[in-house]
Amino acid sequence: MLTISILASLAAVIHVLFFAMESLFWMKPAVRKIFGQSVESAQTTHRLALNQGYYNLFLALATVAGVYLWNHGNISEAVAILTVTLGSMVGAAVVLLFSAGLQMLRGVLIQGLIPLVTLVLIWRPIL
Fold it and tell me: What is the pTM of this model?
């Protein structure tokens, strides 16, 4: 299904953007503003953000591998990989919601809505 490939790819792109912001541009004023970080707090959390960014990159790369498998007819393998990667994205969004509350709702939706919809589409025939 083309919709699954497009949505999963979009989720991967979003997580590559998170990687770039968290690992490459964390100290830039525009990125600090997005994440609500002062210069001091950004300096303090720089290593944590670097680690988080690479985690997002690895999720994105594995998601791309799942999309590749999906598009080449290896559906069982694709479903396994996409369930783990997209499920991790949704899980992280849920953690963000419960740890930061509604003040981070925009981030929760950006991070988790597309992966959630994609998982529903993947698993819908089975449910």
Answer: 0.92
